[in-house]
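Hello Y.,

Per our agreement to keep a running log of every chain we model this quarter, I'm adding this entry. I've kept the format consistent with earlier entries: sequence first, then predicted structure.
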Amino acid sequence: MNNIQRGALAALLIVIVVIAALAPAGIGFLFAQRSQQQEQSERLNTVANAALYRAEDLTRRLSGALGEIGKVAAAPCSPPYLKELRRIALTHEQVRDAGAYDRDGRWQCSSLLGAVSAGVLDGLTLPPPDWRSRDGVMAWYGLARLPGGKVSLVMGRDGFYIAADPSLYVDSLDPDGDPAGGVGIINTDVSRVIATTPATDAAAVLAVYRAPPPARDDDSPYIVRRSASMPLAVVVSAPHQSLRQRVRTLPWGWLLGGVAAGLACAGWAAFFIVRRLSPRGQLSDAVRRHQFIVAYQPIVDLATRRCVGAEALVRWKYHDRIVRPDHFIPLAEHRGLIQAITDQVLDTILLELGDFLKRYPEYYVSVNLSAPDLTTHRFLEVLGPALARQGVRPAQIRIEATERSFLDADAAKEVISAFREAGHAVYLDDFGTGYSSLSHLQTFRIDGLKIDKSFVDTIGQDAASSSVASHIIDMAATLDVQVIAEGIEREEQAAYLHARGARFGQGWLFSAPLSAAEFIRYAGRMRGA
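Predicted structure for the entry above:
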C-alpha cells in the first residue's frame, strides 16, 4: 500500500470515527432541541393559562368593589360616604383608592385624600375613557397624577371609581424567571395594553396579538390566550436567546450542566418553598400584606347591660379562612413580628372606629400588648400621635397585659406608669392563671383585673375553683380597681358576678366578637335600649 492509499485509508478512518462520534451527538442535539421546544411550549401554555385566570379574577374583583360603591346610600363625598369608601378599599386588598367625580370628569373626593374642598385634588380631571362597556362601566389605563402618586388602572361608573395597580395583573407571572420573557394583558375591544411585566414592549405585545396565529404552537415563541367571558387576552412570549446561547446550553453541557443546575435549583427552590410555606414564612408574608383583621367583643355594664366598650381581638385572614390568635401569636412573639401586628391592629381600630370613638367619648377599645411593648416606650410613642391625628381621647384606648409581659418587672413597671400618666387605663388580663398574680398586684399599679374565662366557667359548679371569681372580686374591691369578667356564657354567671360586685363583663351571653360595623350597630341598640 503506497503512501497515497495509506493516507486515504487514514482519512476514511478519521471520517468514520468523527461520524461515529458526532452522529449520536447530532441525534442527541436534535432530540434535545425538540424536547426544549416542547418544554418551552408547555411552559408558555401554563403561564398563559395562569395569567388569563389571574386577569379574569382581578377584573371580577375590581368590578365587585365598584358595584359595592354603587350601593352606598350616603351622599357622594360626605363623611359617611368617604367612610364607606375607605371600608371598601380596606376590604378589597386589590383596590388602591376609591372616590367620586362629576359629569365633567373632575375629581370630587378620594378615600385616600378626602374631599376636593380640601384643595388636594384640584385640577385633576379624567380624560375620555379608554374603554366603555355596554352596561356603562368605563376604564382608563395608565393614568398618572392620581392619589397615591403612581400609575393606576381606573374603573368608573355613574360618577364613582376605583383605582388599582395595573401590575397586579402580571404580578408573579414572570415566565421562567427570565426578564427577557414577557406577559402582556390586552383589552380586546379596543386593542389596548392594560399591563405588562417589566422590560416587556407593549407595542410588540400588540403586534403579536394582531398577527395571524401560527400553524403549530410548538414552533412559536409566544402564546396568545383569549378570554371567553371578558374582553381580555393574554400574550406570553419566550425569553430571547442568541444562537451562541443556544449552542452553549445544548447539547454537550446538557447532562452535567443540567444535573448540576437541576440539583442547585432544586435545592434553592426547596429551601425557598419550605421557608415560604413554613408557618414563619406565611406569617411574615401576612404581616407584609396586612392580612390581619380586628374583631370587637363588646364589654357591657352588668347592671344595665349597656355596652361601654370592646376588646380588640386580632384575627389572621389567611386565604378564605380565619386563623385564631392562639395559633399565630406565640410564633409572632418568638419571631419578633408581634409589634408589627400590634401596630396594624391599632391602625385598623382607628380606621374602622376612629370616627365612632370621636363622636362617642364614653366608649373605649382595649388593646392587648405583648412583652416587647410593655418593656419599652415604642408603642406609646406610636399610640399618642395616632390618637391625636384622629381626635380620639387617650382614655378611649385601654391597655391589656398578661403575666408573660411582666418577666422584666422593673421595665414593665415604668412603662405601665407611663401609659397611665398618658391617660390609658391598664388592665391585668387572664388574672389568676399565672403563678405570680398576687405579687403583680403589689408591684404594679393597674386600673383593673380581668377574670379569666376558666374561673367564670366553674361558677355554679361543684369545682375547687368555683369560688375563685368571688375572691378576685373581693380582692379588687380592696385594691379599688375595676373587674371585668371574661367568657360569660350563661345568665346565672352574669347574675352571680354582678351580685358579688363585678361591674363589667364580656362573653357570648352578650355578643360574639363583631366586625366594626356590627359593633357600631350593637352599641347603638344598647344606647336606645
